[in-house]
Amino acid sequence: MVTRLDQREGNFEPRFAAFLSTKREVSDDVDRAVRDIVADIRARGDAGLIGYTRRFDRADITSRLRITPEEIAQAYETSDPAVVDALRFARERIASHHARQKPVDDRYTDAAGVELGSRWTAVESVGLYVPGGTASYPSSVLMNAVPAVVAGVERLAMVVPAPDGVLNPLVLVAADIAGVSEIYRIGGAQAVAALAYGTETIAPVAKIVGPGNAYVAAAKRQVFGTVGIDMIAGPSEVLVVADAQNNPDWIAADLLAQAEHDASAQSILITDDAGFADAVAEAVERQLKLLPRGEIASRSWADFGALILVDSIDAAVPLINRIAAEHLELAVADPDALLPKIRNAGAIFLGAYTPEVIGDYVGGSNHVLPTARSARFSSGLSVLDFVKRTSILKLGPDQLRALAPAAIALAKAEGLDAHGRSVSIRLNV
Amino acid sequence: MVTRLDQREGNFEPRFAAFLSTKREVSDDVDRAVRDIVADIRARGDAGLIGYTRRFDRADITSRLRITPEEIAQAYETSDPAVVDALRFARERIASHHARQKPVDDRYTDAAGVELGSRWTAVESVGLYVPGGTASYPSSVLMNAVPAVVAGVERLAMVVPAPDGVLNPLVLVAADIAGVSEIYRIGGAQAVAALAYGTETIAPVAKIVGPGNAYVAAAKRQVFGTVGIDMIAGPSEVLVVADAQNNPDWIAADLLAQAEHDASAQSILITDDAGFADAVAEAVERQLKLLPRGEIASRSWADFGALILVDSIDAAVPLINRIAAEHLELAVADPDALLPKIRNAGAIFLGAYTPEVIGDYVGGSNHVLPTARSARFSSGLSVLDFVKRTSILKLGPDQLRALAPAAIALAKAEGLDAHGRSVSIRLNV
């Protein structure tokens, strides 16, 4: 049964707090198994990759680790041209939006004559993990690869498992359209280890991004430090804030688009109209029957879905900020007026004609966004995830003389004599 | 014995690779103990904090969890006014440099009439961990707190343990100067748990930053997800690139300023002149005898120090980028000419009059920087660590009609029918 909460009821606050702290993920304890796999790949390289792929993907990749240009050409041939065009269209929109995110270098001289600066450089090489099977989404390839290319990453190495030798051709096409430089037919913890430490065939990368199952997530955590990693995303979620001036069928469709992702996904409606909430709930039940993935969506809706009734849309603001949703739709009369009050959200979709799904594919913004309330402290994937900043400092003798007394006083106060000496020794000239 | 490497020798590459992969940290296995402490604080709140503080810090903090304004006033009175002034001087320089890092919102309409945007908001509340005892550095309080204040964080809650009831008054003064809003007399994993989950006295925060020992690092890793965390810093390091036109004593002083931090710190000199390398090595030995922390610095230098001889300063560039040092000094004739070739470094100090120590205290840039080669994929602490980005999308009926075909094609190709319906349902009007 979908959860129903009413702000006007006396026990709202404890029930809302409990709802917020619901865990939607079972964390498999796979750390030990992953540790063994990572150690084995470090020790045996390609041979290890071939062994695990035989075992887990039931495929022999001896001398076929890397996907060939011919295979990519073939993938284009077997793909629906309309979908290939849609991928190209999406790539253009993602690339032009992300181009605006490139940070600008700063170099200046302050009043004391000290030169300061911040300089941005691209990460040299990035590994991109792409899941196999049903979760092998070409749109996710674009969303992870395009920002890296826009950032200036020179080498983008993708891994994607081919269970029973089967690959989604659209994933290869998306990789090619995005500008991926190398693709390897491997997955799981072994692929993450190969990207982090390198093998005979695969040169190591500096950072690994992309979604994956519990084994992939555990492997990313374990290699973190040796390489950088992106956030570890949890199940997806949408919060729709809608007044009664909406078509309940449209809102129900949006809630179900989220729910069909997987049984741990979460769809929440906040509305100020009880009758509208009921109408949406009915529309959800009606539409569920039409969906090929209706069983998954039903479980998600029953286990984690929620209808929250509020006094007014304004009264919803603190709840919206506490939920800190990955996706937030504002289907209200004046969404731009509500926008400045929203503090925590991964992405905001304004008005009735901006269903969240547009952001999944072709809006231009990224669909890799902070889940599980982490929008309180983190951001979606962007060009910034593929660059790093170096700070720059330059003093001449005069500037050193001006700054020395404070530096020496602080070094002394912290008991770090060699620190003080490194400054004072330059003054005795 | 300090490591000596020579680029002109045949076995340089394997020796340099081995040097790069040297581990400088023993990772204590404290995960289980920390897990128990975190669970206990979640269950018992303040009572748990009081119990662990009695046990680990040998102090009774019942009804004294929070540091009072009177204690802060007293800290000012017991501090050297020159050091207080130095802290104020440092705060001003840090604040004005970091003010330039504030990201700018972006909102625009593209050629298709789609409105897009990126909006930055400050993290609402941040916890700052400050170690007790000898590693209780007032400069680190400034470096962690000032960027948060500049970012617009409203609530900045600091924790600092007082072993045997003793606190460094300069840490309280630095916190006050930086604009910290609350200070609690607690430390260890229990303090991290209190910040993440809250207790009767301490409201939970959204992100925790600041250095700490193995217990603090493990606790931060465990609460990550519930709150954001900063990077887990390893031992500090400096790479000095110097030609023969330098005073060996100055360079030796810089190497030792790093080495005195702790026995796991690392100081590396790269030079193109064997005689200069010898002169620096001699100066190091001479200066070591003068240092109060000479024993620590000696161990660091002997265990992890290195003198690397190169053919030419230009030939050093690939090595510099592979070392990816936290601190990089370019003490060469034309450091600005070398600068564009350097890709991986946390902070770069240009010329003979910019010792790294200036950046530790009063340069204005941050001294919290990526260690252990992580400058290949990450950046030093900045205002960006205290803000997060929300992406914004707004379509009208015309824009939806223009983008719909590609979105529907991709949804269908990915087998996500409800995604397609969420778009198509809005077109039938």
From TrEMBL, chains A, B:
Substrate binds at S236, Q258, H261, H327, D360, E414, H419. GO terms for biological process: L-histidine biosynthetic process. It catalyses: L-histidinol + 2 NAD(+) + H2O = L-histidine + 2 NADH + 3 H(+). GO terms for cellular component: cytosol. Its EC number is 1.1.1.23. The active site is at E326 (proton acceptor), H327 (proton acceptor). Keywords: Amino-acid biosynthesis, Histidine biosynthesis, Metal-binding, NAD, Oxidoreductase, Zinc. Pathway: Amino-acid biosynthesis; L-histidine biosynthesis; L-histidine from 5-phospho-alpha-D-ribose 1-diphosphate: step 9/9. Zn(2+) binds at Q258, H261, D360, H419. InterPro entries: Ald_DH/histidinol_DH (IPR016161), Histidinol_DH_CS (IPR001692), Histidinol_DH_monofunct (IPR022695), Hstdl_DH (IPR012131). NAD(+) binds at Y129, Q190, N213. GO terms for molecular function: histidinol dehydrogenase activity; NAD binding; zinc ion binding. NCBIfam families: hisD (TIGR00069). This is Histidinol dehydrogenase. It comes from Tianweitania populi. The gene is hisD.
